[in-house]
Amino acid sequence: MVEYSLPADTGVNFTTGIDQAFVYVSGQVPIFIPLLLFSFFMIVLLGGYFAQQRRTGIGDSAQWFSIAGYLTSIAALMMLLVDNLIQLPTVIITLSVAFVGSLWFFFSRDK
Length: 111
Prior knowledge:
Blueprint: H1 7-10, H2 18-28, H3 32-56, H4 61-80, H5 88-107
């Protein structure tokens, strides 16, 4: 059975800011930050696509994939500023997704 350490046992001071809570949780559950970024990516992707589809009648999936990739990369880069919050491979993956989204968007244009 997996045992987790309590915040009182680790000496983490949660009164210094919400970032310490995220650092503590990501230390205990390493998949937390990638899942948080994936959730953010999907919310932007699906929300933007369906909002555009509702307004114009057609949604551009390549456009919203690219936008969601860049916004997720910006969020990951901001998380990189906090020590021990996010790991470098996660940031590289988010930047790669943004790059692939840009290529898809660029090559999906008819003009």
